[in-house]
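Dock adenosine-5'-triphosphate; give full complex structure.
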Amino acid sequence: MIEVTDITKVYAGKTVVNIPRLEIRQGETIGLVGNNGAGKTTLFRMILDLIRPEQGGILSKGEVVAGHEHWKDYTAAFLDEGFLIDYLTPEEYLYFIGGLHGQHKAQVDEFLITLMEFFNGEILQRGKYIRDLSKGNQCKVGIAACLLQKPELLMLDEPFANIDPSTQIRLKNLLKELNKQQGTTSIVSSHDLNHITDVSDRIILMEKGVVIKDIATNSSTLKELEDYFAVGQIERNEAPD
Ligand SMILES: Nc1ncnc2c1ncn2[C@@H]1O[C@H](COP(=O)(O)OP(=O)(O)OP(=O)(O)O)[C@@H](O)[C@H]1O
Protein backbone atom coordinates (compact mmCIF):
# COMPACT_ATOMS: atom_id res chain seq x y z
CA MET A 1 0.00 0.00 0.00
CA ILE A 2 2.82 2.40 0.91
CA GLU A 3 6.20 2.22 -0.81
CA VAL A 4 9.00 4.45 0.37
CA THR A 5 12.03 4.61 -1.90
CA ASP A 6 15.31 6.23 -1.08
CA ILE A 7 13.97 9.21 0.89
CA THR A 8 16.03 11.69 2.84
CA LYS A 9 14.87 14.73 4.78
CA VAL A 10 17.34 17.36 5.88
CA TYR A 11 16.84 20.15 8.43
CA ALA A 12 19.55 22.75 8.99
CA GLY A 13 22.15 20.61 7.25
CA LYS A 14 21.32 17.52 9.34
CA THR A 15 19.72 14.42 7.81
CA VAL A 16 16.76 13.59 10.05
CA VAL A 17 15.25 10.81 7.93
CA ASN A 18 17.12 8.45 5.62
CA ILE A 19 15.16 5.41 4.44
CA PRO A 20 16.42 3.53 1.37
CA ARG A 21 13.37 1.26 1.16
CA LEU A 22 10.25 0.59 3.20
CA GLU A 23 7.08 -1.18 2.14
CA ILE A 24 3.85 -1.31 4.10
CA ARG A 25 1.43 -3.89 2.80
CA GLN A 26 -2.35 -3.64 2.75
CA GLY A 27 -3.93 -4.77 6.02
CA GLU A 28 -0.74 -4.50 8.08
CA THR A 29 -0.80 -2.86 11.49
CA ILE A 30 2.50 -1.06 11.91
CA GLY A 31 3.86 0.19 15.21
CA LEU A 32 6.45 2.92 14.76
CA VAL A 33 8.77 3.31 17.74
CA GLY A 34 11.91 5.30 18.46
CA ASN A 35 13.31 7.78 20.94
CA ASN A 36 12.56 11.51 20.79
CA GLY A 37 13.81 12.98 17.54
CA ALA A 38 14.08 9.59 15.79
CA GLY A 39 12.15 10.90 12.78
CA LYS A 40 8.75 9.26 13.28
CA THR A 41 6.65 12.41 12.86
CA THR A 42 8.79 13.57 9.95
CA LEU A 43 8.14 10.24 8.21
CA PHE A 44 4.39 10.60 8.86
CA ARG A 45 4.43 14.11 7.46
CA MET A 46 6.20 12.98 4.30
CA ILE A 47 3.74 10.11 3.77
CA LEU A 48 0.93 12.68 4.08
CA ASP A 49 2.72 15.11 1.71
CA LEU A 50 2.75 17.81 4.40
CA ILE A 51 6.47 18.14 3.81
CA ARG A 52 8.53 16.81 0.94
CA PRO A 53 11.72 14.77 1.08
CA GLU A 54 14.93 16.19 -0.39
CA GLN A 55 15.13 13.13 -2.57
CA GLY A 56 13.28 9.91 -3.23
CA GLY A 57 9.56 9.30 -3.32
CA ILE A 58 6.56 7.81 -1.58
CA LEU A 59 3.82 5.88 -3.34
CA SER A 60 0.38 5.14 -1.90
CA LYS A 61 -1.35 2.35 -3.84
CA GLY A 62 1.14 2.96 -6.62
CA GLU A 63 0.45 6.72 -6.88
CA VAL A 64 3.04 9.31 -5.91
CA VAL A 65 1.63 11.13 -2.86
CA ALA A 66 3.36 14.41 -3.72
CA GLY A 67 1.03 16.46 -5.84
CA HIS A 68 -1.73 13.85 -6.13
CA GLU A 69 -5.07 13.77 -4.37
CA HIS A 70 -6.60 10.30 -4.75
CA TRP A 71 -4.90 8.85 -1.63
CA LYS A 72 -6.68 11.48 0.48
CA ASP A 73 -10.00 9.71 -0.19
CA TYR A 74 -8.94 6.59 1.72
CA THR A 75 -6.40 7.99 4.20
CA ALA A 76 -7.22 9.41 7.63
CA ALA A 77 -4.59 10.81 9.96
CA PHE A 78 -4.32 12.54 13.28
CA LEU A 79 -0.82 13.76 14.10
CA ASP A 80 -1.59 16.69 16.40
CA GLU A 81 -4.20 19.31 17.33
CA GLY A 82 -3.32 21.21 14.15
CA PHE A 83 -5.52 18.66 12.37
CA LEU A 84 -8.60 19.97 14.24
CA ILE A 85 -10.64 23.15 13.75
CA ASP A 86 -10.53 24.52 17.24
CA TYR A 87 -13.25 27.18 16.98
CA LEU A 88 -15.84 24.46 16.33
CA THR A 89 -17.50 22.22 18.91
CA PRO A 90 -16.67 18.50 18.56
CA GLU A 91 -20.12 17.88 17.02
CA GLU A 92 -19.67 20.67 14.46
CA TYR A 93 -16.23 19.38 13.55
CA LEU A 94 -17.36 15.75 13.23
CA TYR A 95 -20.38 16.75 11.08
CA PHE A 96 -18.00 18.78 8.91
CA ILE A 97 -15.63 15.84 8.43
CA GLY A 98 -18.57 13.48 7.84
CA GLY A 99 -19.93 15.94 5.24
CA LEU A 100 -16.61 15.90 3.38
CA HIS A 101 -17.06 12.15 3.07
CA GLY A 102 -20.68 12.35 1.92
CA GLN A 103 -22.21 11.46 5.28
CA HIS A 104 -25.42 13.11 6.50
CA LYS A 105 -25.80 14.34 10.07
CA ALA A 106 -27.92 11.28 10.95
CA GLN A 107 -25.20 8.92 9.68
CA VAL A 108 -22.60 10.74 11.76
CA ASP A 109 -24.87 10.59 14.82
CA GLU A 110 -25.36 6.86 14.28
CA PHE A 111 -21.60 6.35 14.08
CA LEU A 112 -20.93 8.47 17.17
CA ILE A 113 -23.17 6.19 19.24
CA THR A 114 -20.57 3.46 18.69
CA LEU A 115 -17.93 5.73 20.26
CA MET A 116 -19.85 6.60 23.43
CA GLU A 117 -17.64 4.43 25.60
CA PHE A 118 -14.47 5.87 23.99
CA PHE A 119 -15.75 9.43 24.58
CA ASN A 120 -16.57 8.59 28.20
CA GLY A 121 -19.18 11.36 28.41
CA GLU A 122 -16.57 14.09 27.99
CA ILE A 123 -16.83 15.07 24.34
CA LEU A 124 -20.39 15.48 23.06
CA GLN A 125 -23.13 17.82 24.25
CA ARG A 126 -20.78 19.69 26.56
CA GLY A 127 -21.19 23.03 24.77
CA LYS A 128 -17.42 23.43 24.58
CA TYR A 129 -15.26 24.45 21.67
CA ILE A 130 -12.47 22.06 20.72
CA ARG A 131 -9.92 24.66 21.84
CA ASP A 132 -11.33 24.44 25.39
CA LEU A 133 -11.02 20.65 25.65
CA SER A 134 -8.08 19.01 27.41
CA LYS A 135 -5.28 17.71 25.19
CA GLY A 136 -6.45 14.14 25.78
CA ASN A 137 -10.01 14.97 24.82
CA GLN A 138 -8.83 16.86 21.73
CA CYS A 139 -6.95 13.70 20.82
CA LYS A 140 -10.18 11.69 21.18
CA VAL A 141 -11.95 14.08 18.76
CA GLY A 142 -9.10 13.71 16.26
CA ILE A 143 -9.17 9.93 16.46
CA ALA A 144 -12.99 9.88 16.19
CA ALA A 145 -12.79 12.04 13.06
CA CYS A 146 -10.37 9.49 11.57
CA LEU A 147 -12.57 6.50 12.43
CA LEU A 148 -15.66 8.28 11.07
CA GLN A 149 -14.00 8.30 7.64
CA LYS A 150 -13.73 4.50 7.63
CA PRO A 151 -10.27 4.83 6.15
CA GLU A 152 -8.32 2.14 4.33
CA LEU A 153 -5.16 3.72 5.74
CA LEU A 154 -5.09 5.14 9.26
CA MET A 155 -2.12 7.09 10.62
CA LEU A 156 -1.92 8.13 14.28
CA ASP A 157 1.06 9.87 15.89
CA GLU A 158 1.40 9.00 19.57
CA PRO A 159 -2.33 8.47 20.18
CA PHE A 160 -1.72 6.88 23.60
CA ALA A 161 0.32 9.81 24.91
CA ASN A 162 -2.36 12.05 26.42
CA ILE A 163 -5.27 9.74 27.04
CA ASP A 164 -6.14 8.03 30.31
CA PRO A 165 -5.61 4.28 30.85
CA SER A 166 -9.29 3.39 30.29
CA THR A 167 -9.29 5.24 26.97
CA GLN A 168 -5.96 3.64 26.00
CA ILE A 169 -7.53 0.22 26.40
CA ARG A 170 -10.65 1.27 24.49
CA LEU A 171 -8.46 2.69 21.71
CA LYS A 172 -6.53 -0.55 21.45
CA ASN A 173 -9.79 -2.47 21.09
CA LEU A 174 -11.03 -0.02 18.43
CA LEU A 175 -7.80 -0.39 16.44
CA LYS A 176 -7.92 -4.18 16.62
CA GLU A 177 -11.60 -4.24 15.55
CA LEU A 178 -10.93 -1.87 12.68
CA ASN A 179 -8.22 -4.12 11.30
CA LYS A 180 -10.23 -7.29 11.82
CA GLN A 181 -13.55 -6.03 10.45
CA GLN A 182 -12.48 -3.57 7.76
CA GLY A 183 -8.93 -4.73 6.98
CA THR A 184 -7.66 -1.24 7.76
CA THR A 185 -3.94 -0.68 7.28
CA SER A 186 -2.60 1.34 10.19
CA ILE A 187 0.61 3.10 11.10
CA VAL A 188 0.68 4.14 14.74
CA SER A 189 3.63 5.67 16.56
CA SER A 190 4.06 5.32 20.29
CA HIS A 191 6.53 5.44 23.15
CA ASP A 192 4.38 2.91 25.01
CA LEU A 193 6.04 -0.38 24.07
CA ASN A 194 3.35 -2.44 25.80
CA HIS A 195 0.43 -0.91 23.94
CA ILE A 196 2.16 -0.71 20.59
CA THR A 197 3.29 -4.33 20.54
CA ASP A 198 -0.23 -5.32 21.59
CA VAL A 199 -1.91 -3.60 18.61
CA SER A 200 0.73 -4.06 15.89
CA ASP A 201 1.63 -7.06 13.80
CA ARG A 202 4.87 -5.39 12.71
CA ILE A 203 7.20 -3.04 14.56
CA ILE A 204 9.46 -0.52 12.83
CA LEU A 205 12.10 0.95 15.12
CA MET A 206 13.77 4.19 14.07
CA GLU A 207 16.81 5.87 15.50
CA LYS A 208 18.33 9.09 14.16
CA GLY A 209 16.19 8.89 11.04
CA VAL A 210 17.18 5.36 10.15
CA VAL A 211 15.16 2.12 10.40
CA ILE A 212 17.11 -0.01 12.89
CA LYS A 213 14.66 -2.89 13.29
CA ASP A 214 11.72 -4.06 11.19
CA ILE A 215 10.22 -7.10 12.87
CA ALA A 216 7.02 -9.13 12.87
CA THR A 217 5.48 -8.95 16.35
CA ASN A 218 5.64 -12.14 18.36
CA SER A 219 5.68 -13.11 22.02
CA SER A 220 9.30 -11.97 22.48
CA THR A 221 9.03 -8.59 20.70
CA LEU A 222 8.17 -6.59 23.80
CA LYS A 223 11.21 -7.96 25.64
CA GLU A 224 13.41 -7.35 22.59
CA LEU A 225 12.29 -3.71 22.45
CA GLU A 226 12.64 -3.20 26.19
CA ASP A 227 16.18 -4.59 26.02
CA TYR A 228 16.97 -2.29 23.11
CA PHE A 229 15.68 0.84 24.82
CA ALA A 230 17.20 -0.08 28.18
CA VAL A 231 20.59 0.69 26.65
CA GLY A 232 20.86 4.45 26.11
CA GLN A 233 21.55 5.80 22.65
CA ILE A 234 24.87 7.27 23.78
CA GLU A 235 26.00 3.98 25.32
CA ARG A 236 24.98 2.16 22.14
CA ASN A 237 26.99 4.50 19.94
CA GLU A 238 30.05 4.11 22.18
CA ALA A 239 29.87 0.31 22.30
CA PRO A 240 32.63 -1.47 20.32
CA ASP A 241 31.49 -3.12 17.06
N1 LIG B 1 10.42 21.86 11.10
C1 LIG B 1 11.60 21.43 11.58
N2 LIG B 1 12.68 22.22 11.57
C2 LIG B 1 13.89 21.80 12.02
N3 LIG B 1 14.09 20.57 12.53
C3 LIG B 1 13.05 19.74 12.58
C4 LIG B 1 11.75 20.12 12.12
N4 LIG B 1 10.90 19.08 12.28
C5 LIG B 1 11.63 18.08 12.85
N5 LIG B 1 12.91 18.48 13.02
C6 LIG B 1 13.99 17.67 13.58
O1 LIG B 1 13.94 16.41 12.95
C7 LIG B 1 14.28 15.38 13.87
C8 LIG B 1 13.20 14.33 13.88
O2 LIG B 1 12.05 14.90 14.51
P1 LIG B 1 10.66 14.15 14.60
O3 LIG B 1 9.68 15.11 15.19
O4 LIG B 1 10.34 13.53 13.29
O5 LIG B 1 11.02 12.98 15.64
P2 LIG B 1 10.04 12.00 16.42
O6 LIG B 1 10.61 10.63 16.26
O7 LIG B 1 8.63 12.19 15.97
O8 LIG B 1 10.26 12.48 17.91
P3 LIG B 1 9.27 12.52 19.19
O9 LIG B 1 9.22 11.10 19.71
O10 LIG B 1 9.99 13.43 20.12
O11 LIG B 1 7.94 13.04 18.75
C9 LIG B 1 14.54 16.07 15.21
O12 LIG B 1 15.90 16.27 15.37
C10 LIG B 1 13.79 17.38 15.05
O13 LIG B 1 14.39 18.38 15.86
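Observed: The mean pLDDT is 94.
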